[in-house]
Amino acid sequence: MSVQQPPRLVIFDCDGVLVDSEPISIAVLLDMIGRAGGSVSEEEAYRHFLGRSMATVREVLRDEFALELTDPQLGEMRTELMRRFRSQLRPVEGIAETLARLSVASCVASSGSLDRIRLSLGITGLLEMLEPRLYSAGMVRRGKPAPDLFLHAARAMNVAAGDCLVIEDSPAGIDAAHSAGMRVFAFTGASHAGHAALVAELAKRRPDRTFDDMRQLPEMLAGLR
Ligand SMILES: [Mg+2]
Predict the structure, then answer these.
(1) Which DSSP helix (H) or strand (E) runs through 151?
(2) CATH number (domain holding residue 80)
(3) Segment 81-104 mean pLDDT
């Protein structure tokens, strides 16, 4: 697989790539963990939970932090998250003009539920540009870092894995793209991306490129031609 071949499909992660949601999500998650009697630092949260589905977060909390969350606690957290999204969620800077300028097909593959993807993209004015090409972890058995969701999206879009380029902000997402046999660009322009531990985790995974201004993407794709 050569980096010089142009991709036929760009698969965008949602949180931290299309919408600047991670500071809100991590704050709400840490709030709930605290109220449930657990203790997780912000750095640990970014390391363990970024880019992962709620089902995976729940497993990691149980297995690595000895904290069992109840369904009502998760329900409350979801309600609070949606409330905060409605008042605070913003698109990633430059993403709308970038989507409008892209000359190859695109879709979304996110660890969030379909409802959450739709809400996030709706609030930020991006939904019309991407619907119905929305793929959620709920559609596959294993979430990121497993390759299942990216492979599902590629299949649904009728593009071979080797012709896909994934845009991701999380270590779990970069691992998922590599496992799927896809190229991956790490995006570090969302407001959570300054965390040193996170930057190091991303670099360790050797993405094909790392970039921090979404408006650069069309030129970067043109450079692959
Ligand atoms: Mg993400």
Answers:
(1) helix 148-156
(2) 1.10.150.240
(3) 96
- Domain that includes residue 184, residue range: 9-21+90-223
Ligand 1 mean position, distance from CA 165 (Å): 15
Q: How far is the CA of 15 from the centre of ligand 1 (A)?
A: 4
Average pLDDT, the chain: 93
Give the Å distance between the CA of 173 and the centre of ligand 1: 7
112 Cβ partners below 8 Å, 6+ apart? 14, 15, 53, 120, 136, 137
- Please state, in angstroms and rounded to a whole number, the distance separating the CA atoms of residues 68 and 52: 17
Residue 4 counted as domain residue: no
- Per residue in 4-27, pLDDT tens? 688 999 999 999 999 999 999 999
Ligand 1 centroid – CA 159 distance (Å): 22
What does pTM read for this prediction? 0.91
